[in-house]
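Handout, page 2. Input:
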Amino acid sequence: MPCGVSKHWIEIEGPKGERRVELDRALTRIGGPGADVELAGVRRGEMQVWNDPPKAVWLGGADGPRLDGAVLEERHLVDGDVIDWNGWRLRFRESAPEAVLEELPREPRARAATPTARAWNRLKAGLLVEQGIADPRTSKRWSDAVVRGEFDADAAARELLAATPIDDADPRLEERSARLLRDFLMTPVHRGVRGASRKVRVAGKRTAAAAVAQFVIVGIILGMAFVGMVLARLKWDTSFDGWIDAILGR
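Output:
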């Protein structure tokens, strides 16, 4: 079956000459020492270049790369885009798709479990964030994207899992997923008769607590009034007998 295959690479020009870097992985880290592609003179920050879909993401704050003269934060890349960074020039290149013949598997339906994989990837990425295991910079960037209304569940899951490679059998994931399943199983119970009984008990406790609070408040007010009467009697020799008799009609 013919299909289109494109190839991505970056042409780098700078103080150390020219070179070409093939983008043959999902994520290529470019920056200072320790990056997949090191640039001399770069001491802080990191630029990530994603292969599918092609895009560049800057992690490092101010004074970072500029794409076609504009400050780079997160931009999709097209053939010919130029990124300038600390004396280096990086040009993104993409070859035209080539028609190739792809052999169909014998059981495409059985092998193509895309919806299930997508659901698990989203859930796993969420568990990583909840447990504090996920890469904090990636989590922060996607939480900001949610606030901006630019959330993409599949892209977020893909980047979080790529930045935090954790095995599916990790004990932390297994323990949290078990508790999550227990909560799901108990949801119908909470909504049914037991749930209604539980709500009644909670409401009764709240009513009793409110009544006790009212009695306490009334007691405090009466106590303050009594103290005031005693002080008035001691300091000004005030008598409240006539006032009380007038109220009683004596």
